[in-house]
Queue: 3 jobs
Job 1
Amino acid sequence: MRGRDKKDREFGVLLLLEQAVRQTYSDRRSSAIQPLQWSILRYLHVQPQPKRQLRHLAEHLNLTRAPVARAVKTLEARQFVVQIDGVTDMRTKTIDLTAAGVEVLTSDPMRAAARRLALLPETDFACFQDVIEQVFLSASTR
């Protein structure tokens, strides 16, 4: 029974993590920027131009191209991004943030979560960071 209790506890902690992430995106209206769209905006903001293509974006997000392309089209319709035809290949488009896309990133819900993390004592924050890296990032290399 003890092994089962431990597994339930581990699962419960992951459910808390999931709930924390969901609460970060509190605006659930259909007109709101959705979590995937926020991830796209963040990616485009930090990547150099050669990496701002659908294939790189989908790879980074660990998704197929179809849902990423739909999300990019939605962001484009909302004028947060623009797709620019490639110079040598018209099928390869570069996705750039517009001024509105850069501006909306100032209200990124992850910024509020980061402010809450900043309130942790440095040792607690370092521990939290180590755990996230060990459990989730190292798992992708196994």
Note: The longest helix spans residues 2-24.
Job 2
Amino acid sequence: MLKGVKIRFEIHNILFSVYKFNRTLNNSLIKKQINKQKKEDIAFLYNVTLNSMRLHLHCLKIIDKFIKKKLRDQEKILLISAITQIVFLNFKEYAVINCSVEIAKKLNLYPGLINATLKKIAKDKNDLKKIKINFSDLPLWFQRKTRFMSEYEKKQFLENFHKEPNIHIVFKDEEKLKKFNAKILKTSMISGFLLDEKNFQEKISFINGDWWVQDFSSFLPLYNFDEINKKKVFLDACAAPGGKSFQILSKKLNVILNDKSKNRIQTLKTNLERLKLSAEIYNEDFIKFDNKKKFDVIIIDAPCSAVGTIRRNPEIFFKNKGPNFDKLLSLQENMLEKASFLLNTNGFIIYMTCSFLQIETIDQVKKFLKLNNNFVLSNFRLRENQKNYSKFIKNNFMITIPNIIFDYNIDGYFAAFLKKI
């Protein structure tokens, strides 16, 4: 099998598994493929796989222009991958078409249909790049869960959700940022967007543990938690991969790191070692924590639909099934209830999700406060940059949809500070 055909066939199999069996890219599926590849092949695999999912709705609209009959899943996915490469990634047309035809033969599809369709699309690719999708083209489950969004917010989402994410980094302290020898657009005294994202993991300062990668939206809540230096015992209930915990540890504060997943714990330990940070680590189900354990601050970055990270996790829309909201909402409620038992008086639950859906964010907090009259919603005060960041704070909730700030992409996110009185 020719190299180009082989790697594209692997990409096809990954896409098919995600679509058909609702798998995620973080599982062993893609890792098995990566272990077999050279460095440049890994970059190619990620580039095509992720962008095929990010742009699959655009690709489906293109397919509808050229094919009127109903396609089998394998045909549809093969065309999505090829169109992404030809129209949106500007790969060599003949190489993509020839490889796609060979894959069609291996899958007992119709190679003639694939060949003829892709050749027509290649001729019109400059016009097809401009294709737009509507909110009604998004998954039906998402449309139903976002009825609260304004037309402006929907327009913003459509413009941004399929774009590649930018790399936002956080430093241990101000001195580390001042000594940083690469170009950066500062977002705070200790953070910023990398202007040159290429091979960032090879930078000496990264290897030395001066900074870590953390999305701007995820970074903002703890950076603006004005009680952080007044509290003694922190718990990060779902800590891995560790960004929020590193914010606390960098201030020489005591935080216990917990995560239910053994695989994610290993990632957390690797990150701690690089950053030369240490902490007590639990590998427990937070819901089953001993109620005798008490903390001053409990961080709950709760499992959720993760729609705020759609650019990083484009499989959310690509899968043929939506999230299991009943299960997620129940888990979020149970985690908040558990935290209320483990928290000291005058302590805080910092409730966060990488979702901006009301049912997982504002509605959950309001429901919790209604059931727990010994808790109040605390103020969310910005330490700096009020002009640019105040739009993310509404009624003491921090909430963003996948958006742009300083011309850089940020995730959708939610945070609230809940104080026990």
Note: The longest helix spans residues 3-21.
Job 3
Amino acid sequence: MKEVKIRSMISFDWAMKRLLRQKANYEVLEGFLNELLRRKVVIKSIGESASNKTKKNDKSNSVDILVEADSKEIVIIELQFYGQDDYFKRMLYGVSKFIADYMHKGDAYDTVRKVYSINIVYFDLGVGRDYVYHGITNFTGLHTHDELQLAEKQRALYEKEFAGDLYPEYYILKVNNFDDVAKDTLDEWIYYLKNNKIRDDFTAQGLEQARKTLAYDNLSEEEKREYERELKDRINRDSEINTAFTDGEIKGLKKGRAEGEAKGLKKGLKKGEAIGIEKGEAIGIEKERIQVVLNSHRAGIPVPTIATITNLSNEQITEILKRVES
């Protein structure tokens, strides 16, 4: 059986910020959109990542990448690592604000663009077992249960069949829910989004160009330094979040101890707290070390570079990878 190589690539978020905005690399993003939307998408232009803030106290619509297709449709792609309870509202706000901001006063309503909101999230958003969700607007008869269609003139004007086709569509890719088994070409893209790796036997549109453009080894020395610096900043943010959770747990234990003392459980609870904190801190330190090394390894960073980032020896890093991947 022919050996299948798995090539380490840079992370998709960094690629969107630094490489995929270049016209020569549009093929990569077009391939991803073709696989997700299941139709041909040709990119006309890619807008700068910006917040669209119009007032000092306005909410920020953080858009990672804004794609204008030659079909006069707009695709907003946002990638989010950290959980937000209000993320569903953030999706709605981002699309609504784009439509409002890009429609000039006095414009006819037929100038409103069709918008696709694609959200790549690395946290557990909502409750659901799937890893790709699609949200659309349907107008369905309460009595007849038929879907409202456009009139003939409207179909010719908008090149759509149903009224709901004019409204925004939402895609949510819950990357961490993916089981790493690629059953189709869209799964091949999600495998890359999750692992920063592309198998040589993958055939999804855009991945062949991605192998050439997004390989860590193909970056310039300056790009490698910039990528490693950003990766280290992300690792530090992860560490800060983990520390905040640990601090919260300790405060919870202290509060529990106080309540226990009031109930006459002072001795037993103090002993349990001491053991719990000691054990929790030990697990937390080990978990953080493993996560730092694992994130760097998945991003295709060589072991010597990981050693520089983490202040660990090559042998320690190798041992951590063996323990995690065994």
Note: The mean pLDDT is 80.
